[in-house]
What does this fold into?
Amino acid sequence: MKTLITRADDCASSRAANLAIARAADAGFIKNVSVMAAGRYVDEAAQLLAKRKDICFGMHMTLNAEWDNVRWGPVSLKAQVPSLVDKDGYFHQDPAWFTENRPAVEEIIAELNAQLDKLARAGFTISYVDSHMRPERYVEGLPQELDRWIAEKGLINHNFFYNRLPQNDDFASVPGLFEQVLARLGDGQYFFLSHPAVYSQEMAACGNAKVDGEQLARGRDREADFLASPDTLAICERCGFRPIRYDEAVPL
It folds into this structure.
């Protein structure tokens, strides 16, 4: 009666993320992995994870690249999606840019098809779709088009499963908090989100005006340790929670 959809985002965005997510999958707590087709390390992620039958894989729809020094762009040819890229051919950093610079929705759908095809070619069986930085919030009509596209592809829509755990972002840094939160929750289906990555200079090179790269790398490394710890899964069991996949979950 108590279930927890456990998801790790940004797979394929870096080697650090790939390694951390593989460790978390081995530990048994993470059951859903969202893969960025626009990331530089899709093939490496596929070698580490794609054959696993215990993990539900999703497409982490990516239309933005938030860091100053680590950038990514479209899977499509840049000339095919000009409203999605900056002068250097990368995705724009902040999705709010779309508020004043509306992208062509048909270009977004073309890019989504390209991203889904790339993940399939790499060997991933994609079951659900979620979005990186939620750019759909800033483009009128895009949420409806995304819902239509996801349904057309026969995939699970992430929007129907958000009942996020309280204080989700603090579990890795505050000892004992995860168990305290789970212990006071009643029956139901809840959602847990994470962005793990092992500490590396690769991660420390990320960052922007709002996020310090070194702090980001340290924080994501703490998340990686939390997800890989056997204590995390043991806490779920003590509190009567079972981590589940999206394809086991019930839309809310």
The mean pLDDT is 98. The longest helix spans residues 105-122. The two ends are 15 Å apart (CA to CA). The chain is about 35% helix and 15% strand.
